[in-house]
Specification:
heterodimer; A: alpha+beta; 5-stranded antiparallel β-sheet; 3 helices; about 30% helix; globular; B: alpha/beta; Rossmann fold; 2 domains; 6-stranded parallel β-sheet; 8 helices; about 20% strand; disordered C terminus
């Protein structure tokens, strides 16, 4: 849980330096998933990352949504998993499912 | 997420206070729930407060459905603490490894030549007797204590204090023979058989560890296991009840 706080440390620093920042959080998991509920990924406006929400399988897609959230200020709820349309592109190799909440830091 | 929320979470960590951040997923409205107070949009929602405090108790983040609204409860509990008694060679491996595993590590040793910051970069070092240091720090359920000095006059007071507290792990370096002698001494100091049985001694998982670093791995493996079992034990019945 403290690793989530290390993410927030970096998020705080980015924010303080005037950058647009978003935070993605794993809010639900089903089956086998690489990172537990509460895991966080911080993203700045340049696409720089801190932390993780998976073993690397969905970070690319999450960063894309995070940048969109920084741009329009709206939160997003993302589903990833084997039954998802996106599974072919960014599915979890482990066969699990995760739900990720992405929000801009205001 | 508000910048103020980020700051509040960081502040809670510094003060070793547990806090849950409740986020309403429909609009990202936030409420910070502490054990004794709540701040934010839903701070007066009794159902939310009780769900948040329950999540905090078992230390598990989750999404709940409250009155048709999905609320994500993100639990931030202070990191588990590891107190290493004895600034010895094994401690020099154990301290950085435990830090990597997110433990809040403190090394305690009254001997000035051992308890130096240069031997333990980036780790808190207290040059004090363990029982005095424990009093300052306050032993709690999220603390593990391991004694490594091999010297009864340094280890025994630490073990005595640890066994009289509710720390989740107590380990003591030393052979079976040393451990048997330790049992006699602590019995004289009033430690009961049941209390003594809480000590993991000889310390560490039996993985054939030889070098200081290997012994550190075996100790850390045992501590991680003890912590996981404790969380399982706490979470288990509550989930069934819910």
């Amino acid at each position: 849980m403290s690793d989530a706080l290390d993410v927030l440390d970096q998020v705080g620093k980015w924010k303080a330096s005037g950058k647009g920042v978003a935070v993605a959080t794993v809010i639900t998991t089903w089956g086998s998933s690489p990172r537990p509920v509460g895991s966080q990924l911080g993203v700045d406006e340049t696409g720089a990352m801190v932390g993780s929400v998976s073993g690397g399988c969905i970070e690319g897609a999450v960063v894309k949504e995070a940048l969109a959230s920084i741009a329009d200020g709206k939160p997003r709820l993302l589903d990833f998993g084997v039954t998802d349309e996106q599974a072919w592109d960014v599915g979890l190799a482990c066969g699990g499912k995760v739900q990720v909440f992405v929000e801009k830091v205001n | 997420m508000k910048s103020e929320t980020v700051a509040a979470l960081q502040d809670a960590r510094t003060k070793r206070r547990a806090v849950t951040l409740a986020t309403r997923l429909s609009d990202a409205a936030e409420t910070l729930v502490y054990l004794d107070k709540a701040e934010g949009a839903l701070a007066n929602d009794a159902a939310l407060l009780s769900a948040a405090r329950r999540a905090m108790e078992i230390g598990r983040s989750e999404t709940v459905d409250l009155g048709g609204e999905k609320i994500f409860l993100n639990v931030y509990v202070p990191p588990a603490r590891l107190i290493i008694v004895g600034a010895v060679h094994i401690a020099q491996s154990l301290a950085p490894m435990a830090t990597m595993l997110d433990f809040d590590v403190t090394v305690v040793d009254p001997r000035g030549a051992w308890a130096t910051g240069s031997r333990f970069p980036g780790v808190k070092v207290m040059q004090e007797w363990a029982d005095d240091a424990f009093e300052t720090m306050g032993l709690d359920v999220s603390t593990a204590v391991v004694t490594l000095t091999h010297d009864p006059k340094l280890d025994d007071p630490a073990l005595e204090a640890a066994l009289r507290s509710d720390v989740f792990y107590v380990g003591a370096l030393g052979s079976r023979r040393t451990h048997a002698k330790r049992k006699e001494r602590l019995a004289e100091a009033g430690i009961t058989e049941e209390q003594f049985a809480r000590i993991h001694g000889p310390v560490g998982l039996n993985i054939g560890a030889k070098s200081p670093a290997e012994i550190a791995v075996s100790i850390l493996g045992q501590i991680v296991e003890a912590r996981a079992r404790r969380i399982e034990a706490m979470a288990g019945p509550k989930v069934v009840a819910a």
